[in-house]
């Protein structure tokens, strides 16, 4: 897939399924069969969200979770924000059959196989979404020559978004998934604990100078990860970032 610019389109799409990922996070599966919509792994869309308390129509950015190879479905994964507006509507009131207006694709936070044969994906919480899109693309396209490492932090085991699929992805010989839990973890947890730090990155990435790095999550997380990578000698132009919020 070439990293060419795709045209932005606006369309209406019906919710086919609402999947519960964690107690605070849901994936909305939209029917986009019949819609001419192309995007690159890592891009996002703008979603119009009616907000009943005020009658407003909110516009919010959501990264695309599903692979671009999946042409008939588009998946967005939304984490409920404490006192948020759109995220509360999307995770507590949205149901099968609801119709939304979607516009996109947008964004330069993109990875395609012509860009590198190694990627390191660093995420926190819902920041995993575009990173999952990249991993699903690598898996579904059978890019077994591409080495991918995902190092992702969540607050607790219950809050691990895409838990089962991440464990499955980790079985692929070219994919390395490492999860760290920051607030609480089960007694038998054998992953990392605490925030992502330079020694975790050093341990998981053999040759730090080789991969492209994709950082996604809250602004403070992205800035800290950038500092960690710079302290490990990673060049600026190898780091791509997407900040939520
Ligand atoms: C490129 C991009 C991609 C994104 N992708 C995703 C994704 O895949 N999944 C996802 O879940 N999110 C994603 N986001 C975030 C998403 O766009 C929304 O910002 C998020 O869902 C919160 O929207 P909201 O309307 O619920 O919150 P808002 O109502 O906009 O509030 C956001 C936060 O600010 C706080 N707040 C609101 N008003 C005030 C106030 N007056 N004073 C103090 N604090 C206040 C709220 O408590 C809340 O925590 C993405 C953002 C960007 C920029």
Keywords:
alpha/beta; 6-stranded parallel sheet; Elongation Factor Tu (Ef-tu), domain 3; 5 helices; Rossmann fold
Sequence-ordered SSE layout with sheet pairings:
Blueprint: E1 9-22, E2 25-31, E3 44-51, E4 56-63, E5 73-79, H1 86-92, E6 99-106, E7 118-124, H2 128-140, E8 147-154, H3 163-169, E9 175-181, E10 192-193, H4 198-204, E11 212-217, H5 219-231, E12 239-243
Parallel strand pairs: 7-8, 7-11, 8-9, 9-10, 11-12
Antiparallel strand pairs: 1-2, 1-6, 2-5, 3-4, 3-6
The structure holds flavin-adenine dinucleotide.
CATH architecture of the largest domain: 3-Layer(aba) Sandwich
What is the CATH T-level topology of the largest domain?
Rossmann fold
Helix and strand pattern: EEEEEHEEHEHEEHEHE
Molecules bound to protein:
flavin-adenine dinucleotide
Tell me the number of strands.
Answer: 12
Percentage of residues assigned to helices: 10-25%
Provide the CATH superfamily of the largest domain. Answer: Nucleotide-binding domain of ferredoxin-NADP reductase (FNR) module
Strand order of the largest sheet: 4-3-6-1-2-5
How would you sum up the major sheet? Answer: 6 strands, antiparallel
- Give the helix tally: 5
CATH class division of the largest domain: Alpha Beta
Low-confidence stretches: none
Average pLDDT metric = 96
What oligomerization state is this entry in? single chain
What gap, in angstroms, lies between the N and C termini? Answer: 29 Å
* Number of domain units: 2
The computed structural class is alpha/beta
Proportion of β residues?
35-45%
